[in-house]
Write a structure and sequence with these properties.
5-stranded mixed beta sheet, 6 helices, alpha/beta
């Protein structure tokens, strides 16, 4: 099993990068036939801008840009895709959103049929989202240690993993 771990955080000393490295280590240590690759979108300089060539590729009137094709090849080589990212304003960083927009293109990740249906083309790929959230101690104290102001206590060390 080969896992592609995509990390989106500008600081390589961040919790996000530490979690991505721990996941990669866990995959590698789980057996000799398991491997992991970390794709650091910031360090690799991936452009998240959905530009005119991306629109042409979406409309299938032009070729998919070469940088998106290279990312698609990495995913084609993987059995699992793990996205590791901090939560910014209740969502993922723009860099990761742009990566998804540009890489998961019409014709490769899915196909729109003439009758308006969508055919999913990546059903074999196991996808995991690791979204990391934190706040200042003052924010946690203001909510009595709870993220929502009630219910189960939250800690800034909490890490949520959701398998999609």
């Amino acid at each position: 099993m080969h896992a592609l771990i995509v990390v989106s955080h500008p600081l390589n000393t961040s919790l996000t990068h530490s979690v991505a490295a721990a996941i990669a280590q866990g995959v590698a240590e789980s057996g000799s036939h398991h491997s992991a690759e970390i794709a650091d979108l910031t360090r690799e300089g991936f452009s998240p801008v959905f530009a005119e060539p991306d629109i042409a590729a979406f409309r299938q009137t032009g070729a998919t840009p070469s940088d998106a094709i290279a990312e698609q090849a990495r995913i084609d080589n993987a059995d699992a895709l793990v996205l590791v990212f901090p939560i910014y304003w209740w969502s993922m960083p723009g860099l990761l959103k742009g990566w998804i927009d540009r890489v998961f293109s019409n014709g490769w990740a899915y196909e729109e049929t003439a009758d308006g249906n969508v055919v999913k083309k990546l059903g074999r790929l196991r996808v995991h989202l690791v979204a990391l959230g934190a706040a200042s101690q003052q924010t946690y104290d203001k909510h009595d240690g709870s993220a929502s102001g009630g219910g189960a206590p939250a800690r800034k060390e909490d890490v949520w993993l959701r398998r999609v």
